Amino acid sequence: MSKQIRIPLWEKLQSVASEHPMSFHVPGHKNGQVLPHESWEVFRDLMRYDLTELPGLDDLYQPDGVIKEAMSLARDFFDSRETFFLVNGSTVGNLAMILQSVSVGDYILVPKNVHKSVIHGLELSGAHPIFIEPDYDETLNRAIFPRLADVRQAFNTYPIKAMIITYPDYFGTTGDLESLITCVHEHEALMLVDEAHGVHLSLSHKDLPPSALSLGADFVVQSAHKMAPSLTQTAYLHVGKGYEGETTRIKHYLDMLQSSSPSYLLMASLDASRAYLASQTRHDLDRVMESVKAVKEVLSALNSATLIESNKQTDPLKITLKARPGYTTKAIETAFRSHGIYLEFITDQYLLFVHGLAPFTKLEKLQEAVNDLNHTLKKAAIHDTMKVVRKKVRQPLTELALDYQTLRECQSVFVSLEEAMNCIAAESIVPYPPGIPLVLKGERINQEAIRAIKQLIVAQVNFQNQAISEGVFVVKEIE
After folding, report:
1. What number of other Cβ atoms are within 10 A of residue 298's Cβ?
2. What is the structure's pLDDT at 261?
3. Contact 399, 443 (CB under 8 A)
């Protein structure tokens, strides 16, 4: 592992910048000499490393030099067959691995609680999705992991070519992924894993769930910026060692879908983050876990919310609180923000805190905020809050009312939520964050969905559908 301390791409950028080259090439800031505003002076030094494909800096899409070396080091660390650097986030990784795995008309098994980028990938591929209803935790009132029995039923019913799954989910919840992968491979299908929130699962520690690659997944996407110290918009796409097919297509799709001018700062941060992960010792991770316990202890004293206890199938770095009856997550989040404390996201019931891969050093400030919240929120008017019930009747396997090809040929019309009942959605309805569709494009809108949308609006949950309170776009019926 000694070679893993190297950061070849970042080292090369430093070497080039140290030469103070005169720029007669793009980008237009000329190594930080041309600033868009005087307030950007803080970026001047950073811009020296924001270079382009100069001699010796290699090419992301035809790597044969320093980028190839950096990706090879990532391949060795993550123990993959191949690892690709992504500069358009996990989104482009999800798109590329779907396009690699399925084509027009191919059947693919998809849990309903996937990220919107997966749905976009399905639409681009023209594949035929079979949606599987995830298991539902009545205590937590949210979807979790698919049932193995439902997956088996799907494979016994449809000629499924691939399955894609989110692992872990946005709350850090995992599941028996190993059994699902075994089932998928028994049917000679591919397992694709959106592990956007799990790059740190590649580290070996008793408190961390196993990574999807270590369990035998064929393709795995990991956001580097979510849990590792990489710049926003960076991710890795891994090809599993057990995958025996060609990877020419996936390289083609990455070339097609990503920028032709990839940021060297983003790529260098991927290189550096791999080295950082490789440098983490058991002692380092033990200190992080102790810090997690300390943060949880402070947050557990909050009167307006309860701490959700984690288990062996939960990422310990995701800390979830559930608002107590009479309190809203919006009020709690706003109160934390007044103390300069920003959360990952809130739902109508939950508040998610994400601990980093280093000990938290501001426990006293967090304790002060909790003490103040206990005082100020106690004075606030306590009122009943609406409980949003997501699911009542399980439908293990469902198909879209209209496939994506047909949807492209249909006209859409904007109608009120009441008028949308029993109509086919012309757009996905997506509360955000975390970006999981409540209603899928091409799905028939039922009363349960309408009720949930209205409850979320009342709970002041944000939607990516800007005019959701007025209505939604549905497929125009042919008269």
Report:
1. 18
2. 95
3. no
What pTM was estimated for this model as a whole?
A: 0.92
- In this structure, the answer to whether residues 232 and 303 fall within a common structural domain is no
Same domain assignment for residues 117 and 190: yes
Q: The domain that contains 317 carries what CATH number?
A: 3.90.1150.10
Determine the Cα angle at 377 with ends 376 and 380, to 5°: 100
pLDDT digits (tens, 9 = 90+) for 238-263: 999 999 999 999 999 999 999 999 99
- Angle at 406 (CA atoms; ends 405, 407), nearest 5 degrees: 90
Tokens of 180: 């699902």
Strand (E) positions, 205-276?
A: 219-223, 235-239
SS3 110: strand
Containing 121, the helix (H) or strand (E) segment is helix 116-125
Q: What is the span of the domain harbouring residue 321? A: 282-377
Taken in order 28, 29, 35, 36, is the CA torsion positive or negative?
positive
Nearest to 237 by CA among 62, 58, 66, 91: 91
Question: How far is the C-alpha of 452 from the C-alpha of 463, rounded, in Å?
Answer: 12
In the three-class reduction of DSSP (H, G, I as helix; E, B as strand; rest coil), residue 403 is classed as coil
Looking at residue 479, its pLDDT comes to 47
